[in-house]
Amino acid sequence: MNGLNGIGLVVEDRRSEPTEWGNAMPILHEIRHGLRRLNETDEPTLIDLHALPFGPGDEERLLALLGRGEVEAQIDALGPTRVWESAFPGVWLVDHRNAEDERLALHIEISRVPEILGSQSEDIADAIVRLDARIADHTGAL
Amino acid sequence: MAASKTLGESLREHGVSRRGFLKFCAATASMMALPPSMGPVIAAALEKARRPSVIWLSFQECTGCTESLTRSHSPTVEDLIFDVISLDYHHTLQVAAGAQAEAAREQAMKENHGEYLLVVDGSLPGPNMNPGYSTIAGISNYEMLKEAVAGAKAIVAVGTCAAFGGLPAAAPNPTGAVSVLDIVKDKPVINVPGCPPVPMVITGVLAQYLVFGKLPELDEYHRPKAFFGQSIHDRCYRRPFYDKGLFAESFDDEGARKGWCLYRLGCKGPSTYNACATMRWNSGTSWPVESGHPCLGCSEPKFWDAGGFYVPLSAPLGSPGSTLLAAGVTGAVVGGVAAALAKKRATTAAAEREPVTVEELEQKL
What is the pLDDT along chain B (365 residues), one digit of tens a residue? Predict the structure, then answer.
């Protein structure tokens, strides 16, 4: 045995593997329905990609078909959440990750702005209290 | 012990923002196999939810179910779930051992009588069998289960052993192993089978109980429909190949390399109800069929005795596989017939259970 060369390995031609499982296109149609609904009635749609029976490569193919648009954002709350608009305005990808950067959920959100990007009412109320305290501290220091 | 704080209060105390909470709820909805639009409903329910006390008993088991639970990616929703339930007894995970551990169990049972959630993994020797086959702290599994069930609000049987008897109950079933449901008749029992179950399914069922405070909708085998409502076959990404009649005939042929359907290699997907095809394993990386191996049907009753793992479903019981039906032609109908056949086999296996004594086993050896 002289290292790896001594082990009988057969390297298969990956080009012989299937690259099209056919699971991306139906989602594109679902997205189109959602986009039309958003345009006509302003009703948002959420699609949970984590719950779909994708084969290897299906998700990559879907994301490649959707492309990337003008907006990207990252939220730091219980680990990173990356949000980006696809090449189709109104179609957003929301990628929830934990602190180890492992995926918790991947959503397609069809809306004007993903809900998680907006400041939340409870946090705004808390912000007033904290800002008052900051002002008081600052005033006291003068 | 179960705390009086709500989950919302507990998370805020840990510095989790409302945005973080929304993210937690979105991931929880995904974990519970609910539509993502349920996120706000979950947020409203979790805001008010209180930590339930959970007592986890392990009987005749291999600890694979606990391994599955703890191997889920960390820190994540599961950890938060375990921050927000009060796991008062789990003899593998808890620090205490011996008399202190048993004291913790008794104290939790007393303080939360009528309210705690009892989780069981592993089967147990039946009431008429020698109790010495499996004991904890000198107490037989049967006695410990009966005592714990008396004060439980509901019981979750985790893993195929607890749900259906599993490997210990496989022929010839030397310990006379039975499932939790064979013993418990007067309390609600949720079965979460799998060998082991998908981690997110275990935590998903606990989360569902926490969020909605009631038992989920169950199928005829007491499995939550949210996770066990669809067959592996119906959710399999290789299903289009089955419909086209394209099958792998061996593990190294062209069909196997091209990722065709594994039905003829013994895949039990058509008769198996579980969430592997969508939730996957190892942080959502893959699952057996995606790795090129047929589904063993581990979440179904008597799967050890239901024919060979590599015998196709449509082959008659005991056949080496020479009388295969042309599955691709008959399509989904075969799946239904195969499921019925598998159920019949499971019933037959149950009827033919042959308990043996240790002496008999030793003679055979």
Answer: 455 667 777 777 777 778 888 887 887 777 777 777 777 778 788 777 777 888 999 999 999 998 888 766 544 545 555 566 778 888 888 888 889 999 999 999 999 999 999 999 999 999 989 999 999 999 999 999 999 999 999 999 999 999 999 999 999 999 999 999 999 999 999 999 999 998 888 888 887 887 777 788 999 999 999 899 999 999 999 998 999 999 999 998 999 999 999 999 999 999 999 999 988 888 778 899 999 999 999 999 999 998 889 998 875 443 333 333 333 333 333 334 444 544 554 455 445 555 555 566 556 54
CA neighbours closer than 13 Å in the CB half-sphere of residue A44:
16
Query: What DSSP element (H or E) covers B276?
Result: helix B276-279
Residue whose token pair is 């039906």: B325
Question: Which fold, B230-335?
Answer: Cytochrome-c3 Hydrogenase; Chain A, domain 2 (4.10.480)
Q: Where are the domains of chain B?
A: 51-227, 230-335
Q: Is B324 exposed, middle or buried (0-12, 13-18, 19+ CB in 10 A)?
A: middle
Local structure of A92: helix, strand or coil: strand
Superfamily of domain B51-227: NADH:ubiquinone oxidoreductase-like, 20kDa subunit (3.40.50.700)
Contacts of A55 in chain B (CB under 8 A): 237-238, 259, 290
Query: Does A21 reach chain B within 8 Å, measured CB to CB?
Result: yes
- Interface with chain A: mutation pick from B237, B262, B282, highest number of A CBs within 10 Å: B237
ipTM: 0.75
Residues of chain A contacting residue B282, judged by C-beta atoms under 8 Å apart = none
Among residues B345, B337, B354, the alpha carbon closest in space to that of B307 is found at B345
Residues 34 through 53 of chain A touching chain B, CB cutoff 8 Å: 46-48, 50-53
